[in-house]
Every structure is written in C-alpha cells, then in structure tokens.
Amino acid sequence: MTDSTVFPDGFLWGGxxxxxxxxxxYDQGGKGLSVQDVMPQxxxxxRTAVPTPDNLKHEAIDFYHRYAEDIAxxxxxxxxxxxxxxxxxxxxPKGDETEPNEExxxxxxxxxxxxxxxxxxxxxxISHYETPLHLAETYDGWVxxxxxxxxxxxxxxxxxxxxxxxxxxxxFNEINxxxxxxxxxxGINTPKEQLTDxxxxxxxxxxxxxxALATKVAREVAPQAQIGCMVLAMPTxxxxxxxxxxxxxxxxxxxxxxxxxxxxxxxxxxxxxxxLRERGIDLDIxxxxxxxxxxxxxxxxxxxxxxxxxxxxxxKRVAGEGNIMGGVPNPTLEVSExxxxxxxxxxxxxxxxxxxxxxxxxxxVENGLGAKDQLxxxxxxxxxxxxxxxxxLNDHLVQVGExxxxxxxxxGYTSWGCIDIVSASTAQLSKRYGFxxxxxxxxxxxxxxxxxxxxxxxxxxxxxxxxxxx
Length: 470
Ligand code: BG6
Fold this sequence. Notes:
- The protein is built from 14 helices and 14 strands.
- It is an alpha/beta fold.
- It has one domain (12-464): Glycosidases (TIM Barrel), CATH 3.20.20.80.
- The protein has an eight-stranded parallel beta barrel, surrounded by five helices.
- Helix 6 (146-162) packs parallel to helix 8 and helix 8 (197-221) packs across helix 11 (287-293).
- It binds 6-O-phosphono-beta-D-glucopyranose.
- 6-O-phosphono-beta-D-glucopyranose binds next to loops.
- InterPro entries: GH, GH_1_N_CS, Glyco_hydro_1, Glyco_hydro_1_AS.
- Belongs to the glycosyl hydrolase 1 family.
- The active site is at 366 (nucleophile).
C-alpha cells in the first residue's frame, strides 16, 4: 500500500497508443503512406520497397473504426487522460502539400468528441514514428532542412484546428531514438550503415529546431497549450565501480540528455559541442536556429521500460537481446520475454535525475510490460489472468509514489499500449501490453473482439483510489 496522500489531486491517470500501431485503415480517408507502411517487421527487419500484405499495421486493431468502443473501455477504467498520436500522413498525405486533408482532420475531431464525452483529457503526440513515406524517399527525412517547414505547417494546422480542445502536446516521440532507428524515428531513407555522423547530427538539429518552432507557433496560435518534449529514458548503471565504467555511463547519459538539455535550456551544452569538435562535425546552425531553440518546453515527458549497464571494457561488451539502444545487460536484473530488463527502482531514479537536471514538470507517457497472454474463460467471461502485468505496473507505480515523496513534480502516468497493439520494434501482436485483449494474432487472424483482462479491474481500482490501492 502507498501513502494514500502521495499522488496529488488532479494527477492524470491513463494510457497511451500511437496511430500507426492502433488505427489501421492505412489507405483510407485520404491517408498517404508513412514509413510504417513499409516496415512489416518493425525495426528488427528491413523495410520493403512498397507496402506488403504481411504488414499488421495496415489493419492494426482497427481503432480507426472502433475508437468509440475503445475510448468507452478507457472511460470504464476511469482514465482522466489518453495519449494518442496523429498520423502525419492522414493530415498531409505526402507531407509537403500546402493544404491539409480535411477527412483526416475530421477523424481526430471525432476522437476528441468521444474523449470529451467521457471527460478524458487528450495528450497528443504530433509525430510518433510516422513520417510520411514521401518525405523519407524524396528528402531523406530529417536530414533535409526542408522538413522543418513541412513540420511547422503540420503542427500549425493541428494547433489551429484542435488548440482550443487539446492542452497537452508532445512534439516528437522518443526524439533521442534517432541515432538508433533513423528510418523509423527520423524518416531517413539512407541505410543506417551508410549514414554519416554529419548527416545524423544535422537531422537531429533539424528536429530540435522544428520542435522549438512548434512550441513558438503554439504560443501564438494556442496560448493555453502546454508543450512537452518526449525522450526515451533509460537509466544507465556502471557495470563495475571502475571510474572508467562510470565515465562510460556519463558519456552514454550525455548522448541521451542532450535532447532534453536543448529542449529545456534552449541551447547546446558544452559536452555536445566537444563531441562535434572531436568528430569533425560542422553543423549547419543558423542565427535563426539559435534564436528558435530558445523556445523551451513547458514539461518533459518520457517513456520508461528498462535500465541498462555500461562498461568501458570491450571484452565485457556483449549484446543482450533487449538492448537495442546500446549498453550491456545488467546481471542483477530479471528480463522480460523480449530481454528488456525489469527495474522499477530505475523509474524512481530517472524521475529524480530528470527533475534535478531540468526542474520541469515530468509526465510518464509510456511504461508497461510486453508479454504473451493466454485468453481463458472465467465465469462465462473471456479474460486474461495477467498477474505478471499487474505486478510489473504495481511495482513501477509504487516507485512513482516514492519519487513524488522525493519532491519530484509528476503530472501524470499513461501506461503504454493500454489496449493490445502492434509492437514497434518487432511488429508483433503477441507482444501485448494492454488492459484490454484484442483478438488478433501475428498471422493476422482473429475477430478483433475486445476482452477485459484482470489488469483492467486492477487499474480501475488504482485510478479510483488515486494510487492508494498500490
Ligand atoms: C516505445 C515507442 O519505444 O516503446 C512505442 O514509443 C513502442 O511506439 C514502445 O511500442 C514499446 O516497444 P515495443 O517494441 O514493445 O512495441
């Protein structure tokens, strides 16, 4: 049990999804293709030249047609917030048009209507791994400075249309994943192995400028909007107490922190400038860019799934199954079925780290356990007895309570994949995160029917008690 007063009144409880992982209807309503439409195997496999029928995201869980039913389920759990993303290619099918696609805009009007009906606050990700494919193939994604203008037009369109209805916005999902997944994260068509540091850092700079520009536009067009950045948080521990390992940790942290540092401080930190100098990278940063970067965010949001260890010793540098962001496995921690280290305390650590460093309100916008679920029948009702998921989420939320007691300012918590969705890294449906089971399998079979899991009732109790039942 947590201290029942630790979660403040108004703490936002809910869940999160992304358009490409739930909507389906990939070619309906005037939508153009996105990078996801040619990634049938997620980031673990190669992209295809054209969309192929084995891509589960093309139908996903059909949220495009079932959003009302799904939002009603979220409301039944008592969600006060729902994080979802807008598919860029529904609004600007190719990305470089001057006029938006009204049918796409109208779809998100309907989603917002439904949320309003249930009193659920929307939290909107502007770009969640869904760059229009045309921008990837014609401009090489964020390597090109032209993307800043296209993104500005897209963000402005959203602020103008939904600015009076949406308070919380995130500019780029896991912006610091760019070096690890350049095609999915940055729409960069050049294969990762051929990408130079110069191109990669330039793309990063363009995204950071675009994020700051969106913040500036929001201040003008939707003054009540709260703009957040979104980073993938992965606390890094030294493999041993050797100072060389601690230095390796510092370097890894810097590689991740730089994104939040720029978003919160409005300029590049010294350690990053040193990296540029030492790698001989001459970034194209204009005076206007520097000015734009001073448009800092209102809050910092992040995903948290796992921690990782670091070492300076090449002999100990083994690749673990789950460490797609680098680092080495931590021998003290258990891992999920996909090799992701389970570390609830790491969430408290990262909350304190970010708060100490940035002094901005924090929002945990992704956290959860991907696991294989078994549908069973109990008292004539189909369900999943997912005690493992309940244990994972409970342990993590207890640590959020600890961080709140530490004095960290946390706005809310949206668990990832609150309804089963298609996985981003492996494009599987069998990697399930939801409180709601969706009858769809990796081979595409299934009725798409929804079933409440045991965790559905558990989370409802947590929300209704504002964390006291943890
Ligand atoms: C985050 C992404 O990296 O992790 C999500 O923002 C993703 O899109 C989530 O789904 C979980 O990863 P996966 O690979 O298990 O879906």
